[in-house]
Amino acid sequence: MGLLEGVFVVAVHLVVLLSVLVGGWQLVMLGVAYRQVRGARLAIDDFMRPVQGHSPPPEARPYLHATHEAFSTLGWRFDGLYQKVPEGAAPQADFSLWLSPDGTVLGAVVATRAEKDPVERTVLVSQDASGKVLTANDLPGTGDQFGGASSMGTLLHAAPAELLAFHQQRLQAEARSPLRTWQPGQVFAALRELSEHSVKLWAETGHARWKPEAPGEYSYTRKGAWRYARQAVRSVHDVGAAQRERLKLPRLGSPGASATRTGPEPKLPAKRSRASGIVNAVALGVCLWFVVAYWRKPPPEPPRAVPALGSIALEEDVDAALAAPAFADGQRATMAGGDEVTLYQRPLGELRLTSGRLVAGDAFSLDSRPFAVTLPAGTHPVFLTVAEGNGQQTPVCARLQVSERPVSRWRAAGAYGVDSGTASFRDAEAEELMAGKLGLLGTEHPLLPKIEPILSSGMGGVVELAPAPAANVAVFSSGYGDGVFPTWFGLDAAGQAASVVTCFTGLRLATPPPAGPVPSEG
Fold first, then answer.
1. Which of the residue ranges 41-50, 154-163, 510-519 has the most confident prediction, judged by mean pLDDT?
2. pTM higher than the cut 0.90
3. Which of 104, 168, 254, 457 could be bridged to 179 by S-S, CB 3.0 to 4.6 A?
4. How far are the Cα atoms of 104, 460, 491 from residue 423, in angstroms, in the given order?
5. Are residues 324 and 185 in the same domain?
């Protein structure tokens, strides 16, 4: 059994064990929450657009109408209606903003327009003298939205009056006097200010980063998305365990709901029984037995598929002779769509590796990790394999030539995503240099003014960030645009990296290339 297969087997059994220990649904929800947060487009204003009037629009959900009337009855000051309207799309959610009579509590009511599993939530927000933000809401499922300087509380299915009493109890117990006050007309600006400050705190701790190409937008890093997802799943689990009785209460706006009700008080989660501990111990023993049995008698390995002759869909341990012709001028090939093309090699320049820690990724991303293999420091040529046919030129491969030694086999190194249509090879120190120039709240990426001339006159080149010997960046068009592109390391006979290749599309090679180089006309 190979090392990677053994690690996989152990991982599978650990997942089974964790499913027993913490509940399989939590693992599933954790994965779903991570994917949603990691891939979400996040903005400070969240596409918020003001709506005229003092009442929710007729098509808004009943929850918003009922909560709106309840806040009015409590004497709260209405501070505007808003809608979440992405560009070119229909409204996705309605928001109603409120301010308490003494100005110390901000209220936000949100109701999405999704027919299936709509989100309906009321959130109360206060800030004390130390800057700590305290929130109370009537629905769990969110992580820390205020950069770690906050305290969140949930009272399931609470009516506004009940939620306000719950919030005030928490303020008395946790907040430092005096509380911050706001004036009418400031709720939207106050929530936006708190959100911007929270993103700054997240960015300072490495949990989020501002998007240089879009002012006011940000995204969570892997670490930040994982933390947010864990908090969201934990909030659902903890609140469900402590407030199980309140789940039976109807939500405001549904039949039988009352805006003045008082539901049962939350209870502490029940302690695990001894029987639960015995079940977990037995499950652990069964999982360990399966792991040991699998290692002692590994299953037969399935036959490995042999790549078609002439294919450059590089795979781990494939004979390098199958791919070598793709990196020669004049080679004929067939594109994935069936078009006949001729391949040419275009030198892009010399990439300077100052630390040897190579990074491959979107040219404008500052959240990439270097490969585990460290390459020799120094300058190495970069080439772009271009397919010409039907009057078009398409980049199909980018190659960093580390040494002159021939490649004897290829090893898969992973894949990276491109969202800007421009990929790159660079040293990790180049990424650090760009991040330093960009700054925490910068909106102008240092590569933008340098890449545009390169791509307008060709398909790639080398961008200098500072005078030599500082690291530079090799940039190149990623073929047909955005996507996720695999990368391989070409190893020589001694197992040392001799080449690094990213492929943007699949090719099938035709006849061997003609003798001698054939110059490109493009």
1. 154-163
2. no
3. 104
4. 49, 9, 23
5. no
Residue 259 lies in a domain: no
411 burial via Cβ count (<10 Å: 0-12, 13-18, 19+): middle
Distance CA 46, CA 192 (A): 10
- Residue 50 domain boundaries: 45-203
Q: What is the mean pLDDT of residues 22-42?
A: 65
Q: Which of 162, 185, 203 is the last residue of a domain?
A: 203
Place of tokens 């989660």: 269
Report which residue type is found at 8. Answer: F
Whole-angstrom distance, CA of residue 229 vs CA of residue 141: 9
- Calculate mean pLDDT across residues 105-126: 90
Domain total of the chain: 2
What is the 3 state secondary structure string of 71-107?
HHHCCCEEEEEEEECCCCCCCCEEEEEEECCCCCCEE
d(CA 490, CA 383): 15
Is 214 a member of any domain? Answer: no
Q: What is the pLDDT of residues 321-334, one digit of tens each?
A: 667 777 888 888 88
Residue 324 forms part of a structural domain? yes
- Cβ neighbours of residue 368 under 8 Å, at least 6 residues apart? 359, 360, 361, 362, 416, 431
